[in-house]
Design brief:
mainly alpha; 11 helices
């Protein structure tokens, strides 16, 4: 993996994103708008609901949005022959996916910063841990969504198929991450499955930071999520095809 090539690929991706105003609005604002919508729903009914589920959603929304956008964008570039042209040039697969991950990662930093600051600020989400740690977990979780999106895009032949991976990859993690039922209350088989799903650790980190000022457990969970993200990029590089068949 060569830093110069990776940065060049990232710069090209960022240039494309900057020209697509709708895509940028979706990437930067959609998670925040979804959190605001949830807060608004329960503001007059039971405000404690937002404090209870808000930290988990700070992990879930960036992950989901980045997975969807990355998988579709990468598939579109492969179908259009862009990836083939880049791979004919002296660009290794890991350079290519590293550039995509870097570009979307920079977007994820802004996305996560806005979402966390709005939640912990105007929306009044109560957190015991440092806000910067919440932002870091949200960024790494968004990078996980990016990495998994890059990985699954190698197996799709159309943008519609890329979207179809969402029920298979995202929804099981959403159901078993502890948002609806605490993970330690799940049936044994489902608890075991939850233990090998990366989103579970991101939600655990957010939940820990919302109730405790200690960050040791959150750092351990964050390391697991980061490990999954790196593994997904490496698997994506190994399976990336130049063009859609």
């Amino acid at each position: 993996m060569r830093a110069r090539v990776t940065v060049a690929v990232a710069a090209r991706v960022l240039t494309q994103l900057r020209r697509d105003h709708r895509m940028m609005a979706m990437l930067l604002l959609l998670p925040t708008l979804l959190v605001v919508l949830l807060w608004w729903m329960f503001s007059d009914v039971d405000p404690e609901v937002f404090d209870r589920v808000g930290p988990a959603l700070l992990a879930i929304f960036p992950f989901t949005v980045m997975f969807l956008v990355t998988s579709v964008t990468t598939l579109r570039e492969r179908a259009g022959g862009t990836l083939e042209r880049l791979m004919v040039a002296p660009t290794a697969r890991l350079d290519l996916l590293g550039g995509y991950a870097l570009a979307f990662g920079l977007v994820a930093v802004v996305q996560s910063l806005v979402t966390v600051l709005v939640s912990a600020g105007p929306l009044g989400l109560e957190v015991a841990g440092p806000v910067w740690m919440l932002v870091l977990v949200a960024v790494v979780d968004a990078l996980l969504g990016t990495s998994l999106g890059l990985f699954v895009s190698a197996f799709a032949r159309s943008e519609f198929q890329a979207v179809q991976f969402m029920p298979a990859v995202v929804i099981p993690q959403l159901l078993l991450c502890g948002l609806f039922v605490p993970r330690d209350a799940l049936p044994p088989v489902l608890a075991t499955v939850s233990d090998v799903l990366p989103l579970s650790y991101a939600v655990d980190a957010m939940s820990t930071l919302s109730t405790s000022s200690g960050t040791g457990a959150a750092w351990r969970d964050l390391a697991v999520v980061a490990g999954f993200a790196v593994a997904a990029v490496l698997l994506g590089a190994a399976t990336l095809r130049r063009r859609t068949a």
